[in-house]
Design a protein that fits this description.
2 domains, Dihydrodipicolinate Reductase, domain 2, 18 strands, Rossmann fold, 27% strand, six-stranded parallel β-sheet
Length: 421
């Protein structure tokens, strides 16, 4: 399965906002460094691919680099190709990497196609909407010796990594109560979100609140046991109805409480491009402690002479993702958004490298050994490491559909979710 030159060929499924903002520039830089090979992008139609191909910032940052588009850029933008991704993936030699960047409810189908064609997978979060689907994907990947990584990029924020190390060393005592929020911009309502972010498919808690559920688990190691979520309905510009706001509470196995507020409504003209942060209050036998991350404002303020950033004054977060000058051609990506993509790509390469020179059962065993090591280390989000997120997503979707009725997460004898009586 290892490629002759060790470079992964990449197929991105989905050409939307996250591909433009984080995935493609990260992969372009890895390609420029000689880490990966050719990049192909497959979308439902040619329109978003044209946007990516003609994006001026990419020409500035990655001169001379490009991707192969499916469908072709000259195809009519109103002609849809819902099954083209299957053809593109089927032609990829085994042991390469499929990046899944489609709406949440479509993740599972695309991931299965990739695994069935013996490809590693990097998917945006959340993995899938139910625990049973996560288990199915994990088993299929393990059986084939394939890596599946979930792009929970907040795990690579140095603040989170530092907090994880200190919490698990006992420096904060026990987490007892906290709150998190992630309010995305209002303009999301005018994007492709209005076509899929409907009540039957998603909500702000499961879409962005999952970042902080994963982060609390990542830092503390605690498991959630109860979830309550209520949503506030609203109408998108195209008339579709969705949950535009949501507020939830997660109870953890030690009795700690975490409230999470999410929405698609941060003012487009405001200083921050969103509003997000986390605070965890902790205690020991004779004192208390605190972990507080302000993820919206990190001490940088810019006032511009133009409105290219959406407004003339912005709080800037260079820690997530920025394209900056470097000692090389164009610009380079920096921040935990890039480091997350890089780590997941390198993990897939590491799995391939373990089987180099081996065949059959020996090659499979070598790849499976590396996959087990990745899960045991617990830094990269994988179906075998981050499955508590699927339990929370499943519980949240049950709860929000019942106007905030509590959903319990039970781990024995087999993890499952049920509504309270």
């Amino acid at each position: 399965m290892t490629q002759p030159d060790g470079k992964l060929q990449i197929v991105i499924i989905g050409g939307g906002m996250i591909t433009q903002d984080q995935i493609l520039p990260s992969l372009y830089h890895l390609q420029r460094q000689g880490v990966i090979g050719p990049i192909r992008i497959c979308a439902l139609n040619s329109a978003p691919l044209r946007v990516l191909a003609e994006f001026p910032r990419f020409a500035e940052a990655f001169p001379g680099q490009s991707f192969e588009a499916f469908p072709a850029l000259d195809m009519p933008p109103d002609k849809m190709h819902p099954d083209l991704f299957k053809e593109v993936v089927s032609k990829l030699p085994p042991g390469n990497l499929v990046v899944v960047a489609v709406p949440d409810h479509l993740h599972g189908g695309v991931i299965r196609v990739a695994l069935e064609h013996d490809q590693h997978v990097l998917t945006v979060k959340p993995l899938v909407p139910t625990y049973a689907e996560a288990v199915e994907i994990h088993k299929l990947a393990q059986t084939k010796g394939l890596f599946v990584g979930v792009e929970y990029h907040k795990r690579f924020d140095r603040r989170a990594l530092d907090a994880r190390g200190l919490y698990r060393a006992g420096r904060f005592g026990r987490f007892r109560c906290g709150e998190a929020k992630m309010i995305e911009p209002y303009y999301y309502r005018h994007s492709n979100f209005q076509n899929w972010f409907t009540k039957d498919h998603s909500d702000p808690f499961t879409y962005v609140g999952c970042h902080y559920v994963d982060l609390v688990h990542f830092i503390t190691g605690l498991r959630p046991v109860e979830v309550t979520v209520r949503g506030v309905e609203g109408k998108f510009p195209n008339g579709n109805i969705g949950y535009l706001w949501a507020q939830g509470q997660v109870v953890w196995e030690n009795g700690a409480l975490l409230s999470i507020t999410d929405g698609l409504g941060y003012p487009d003209e405001a200083a921050g491009t969103n509003d997000q942060g986390l605070v965890l209050y902790c205690e020991s036998d004779n004192c208390s402690a605190i972990i507080k991350h302000d993820d919206q404002y990190r001490g940088v303020q810019h006032g511009y002479i133009d409105r290219l950033a959406g407004t003339m004054f912005r709080f800037v977060s260079p820690d997530y993702f920025r394209l900056v000058p470097w000692d090389g051609a164009g610009l380079r990506p920096v921040g935990y958004g890039f480091e997350s993509i890089e780590a997941l790509v390198l993990a897939a390469q590491r799995v391939n490298a373990a089987a180099e020179g081996l065949k059959g059962k020996q090659a499979l065993t070598a790849r499976q050994r590396v996959l087990a090591e990745i899960d045991e280390r617990g830094v990269l989000a994988t179906p075998g490491d981050s499955w508590i997120n699927e339990l929370v997503t499943e519980a949240a979707r049950l709860s929000i559909a019942q106007n905030g009725r509590s959903a319990l997460i039970e781990y024995e004898p087999t993890p499952k979710v049920r509504l309270t009586m």
